[in-house]
Design a protein that fits this description.
Helices cover 42% and strands 12% of the residues. The chain has 499 residues and is of the alpha+beta class. The N and C termini lie far apart (88 Å).
């Protein structure tokens, strides 16, 4: 265990002490501080014990075998392994909201193979917990007296007992060496959904069918055996299935991306390669060193994910689950962001992006980006650390102005068209980024690098400035020839006066 001092809100200056497993990162600590609204120190063991005891004190279901162990121990182990966690309603014991669990799909991949047995066992544990809570809380929620239970049994069993949400789909695909934007990736998502539906609808009035999966026969065969073993005579209340949206529970589980969203950036917030990136490189027989060599040679070792791939995955799973985040429509969203004036698009709490350190003509430049949920650019920071205070301030203000424009819907293409190939000092050879060898200004390099990273368009270098005396000096705020003529005329006037 380790203890960190962290703020529940990135904009807040008040810190809280959070104690959590040493293997969990700071994002999980911040999520735990957000989940526990009460002030003061936060300990994972104490906070988890509240909902664990809440489930253990609920009476078991009628079909539960005698002597069955309590559910709390297994639920605690799954939480520590970051495989499954309760939603905020269950974490905070909000009885007026729907209880549920969030499952991290990448946690069930072992040695590049998805384990359907462990996945279904985790689903059964979550379903049993939700149905126990539903049985214990249904009278309190309805406000009715428990009269005429036999006549109401069929009606009550039609109500949903909870919600199971899946997340981290792209990381699960990467751990198996599958690409997100591929038919194999979409077929795997459909096979997992079909298997989960069979597990959730076991013993209920709702029917479930097996999804034919030629590429994943082990999942199909396990689903068939699970469907054939459904011999429950009791009619259980159904449980809904869906994919998660961005929230603190996903951060608590350490997911790389929530729900079915793709992983747009190959590096994390600290500038390190993600686990999914390492898995995908290994599946292609590449090491980080060989991938770096390919990148320096202007060859992309991994395919870039577009917003259209997100749309295809959404269409592949749409209609198979009960809950799904809104369908991404990049073209429509871009059009609305341009037409809808005065509405600012907020950045997510967990922001992806990249940090780049370069040198233009011997002058250092640090560039950092932040991205929206769809992977598009949302914020830009430009910092020349060794320049004068005025130059640093102007560059920082320019980055803030560009960030505000992007968040209000200004397309990135407009900024690139405006600032690429601008000519002023410092300029010269670019060191530290293979996207450019020469830049006519710091802004020229920065926005051509953004074009390559976010638009997939490589812009060639501008021709180098001539060293002849007729060339313009980029450090001067006026024409070099005009300056030379004025200096010559002034010298001649001084000679006349002396003579």
């Amino acid at each position: 265990m380790r203890t960190v001092a962290i703020a529940s809100d990135p904009d807040s200056h008040s810190l809280r002490s959070v104690t959590l497993p040493a293997a969990w990162d700071d994002n999980a600590a911040q999520a735990l501080a957000q989940i526990t609204a009460n002030g003061g120190p936060v300990r994972l063991a104490q906070e988890a014990a509240r909902w664990v005891d809440f489930i253990d004190t609920a009476p078991p279901l009628a079909h539960t075998p005698e002597g069955a162990p309590p559910l709390g121990r297994s639920l605690s182990c799954l939480l520590l392994m970051q495989h499954m966690a309760p939603n905020i309603a269950l974490w905070q014991r909000r009885t007026d909201e729907q209880f549920g669990f969030v499952l991290r799909l990448s946690g069930f991949v072992q040695e590049s193979t998805f384990s359907p047995e462990q996945f279904v066992a985790c689903l059964n544990l979550a379903c049993d917990s939700l149905r126990r809570l539903n049985e214990a809380q249904r009278n309190e929620r309805s406000g009715e007296l428990p009269l005429f239970d036999e006549n109401k049994a069929a009606e009550e069993n039609c109500h949903c007992a909870g919600l199971i949400q899946l997340t981290d789909l792209d990381a699960c695909l990467a751990a198996q060496g599958l690409d997100y934007d591929s038919p194999e990736g979409r077929e795997f998502a459909q096979a997992i959904i079909a298997l989960a539906r069979i597990a959730l609808r076991k013993g209920t009035r709702q029917s479930a069918s097996v999804k034919a999966s030629p590429l994943f026969p082990e999942i199909e065969h396990f689903a068939i055996s699970l469907l054939q073993a459904d011999t429950h005579k009791a009619v259980l209340p159904p449980i809904e299935l869906g994919f998660s949206s961005s929230g603190p529970i996903d951060a608590l589980l350490g997911v790389e991306t929530c729900g079915i969203a793709p992983i747009f950036s190959p590096i994390d917030e600290q500038g390190k390669l993600r686990s999914s990136t390492l898995h995908r490189l290994a599946s292609r027989g590449l090491t980080p060193e060989t991938a770096l060599a390919l990148a320096l040679n202007n060859e992309n070792p991994l395919p870039k994910i577009s917003g259209q791939a997100f749309v295809k995955m959404h269409e592949a799973v749409s209609g198979l689950v009960d809950y799904l985040p809104p369908r991404p429509e990049p073209e429509t969203e871009a059009l609305l962001s341009r037409l809808e004036r005065g509405v600012r698009r907020s950045l997510p709490l967990r922001q992806n992006g990249f940090s780049q350190k370069t040198s233009i003509g011997g002058h250092r430049l640090f560039m950092r980006t932040a991205e929206f949920e769809d992977g598009s650019l949302g914020a830009l920071t430009l910092l020349p650390p060794r320049e004068s205070p005025m130059a640093r301030g102007l560059m920082e203000c320019l980055g803030q102005a560009v960030s505000v424009g992007l968040q209000f819907g200004v397309p990135l293409e407009a900024f690139i068209e405006q600032f690429a190939y601008t000519h002023f000092g410092p300029c010269g050879t670019v060191e530290g980024d293979p996207v450019a060898a020469y830049a006519s200004s710091m802004l020229d390099y920065a926005f051509r690098a953004l074009s390559d990273a976010y638009l997939g368009k490589h812009m060639p270098d501008a021709p180098m400035a001539s060293s002849s005396e007729n060339a313009e000096d980029p450090l001067l705020p006026f024409d070099h020839n005009e300056f030379v003529h004025k200096k010559t005329d002034a010298s001649r006037r001084q000679l006349r006066l002396v003579s």
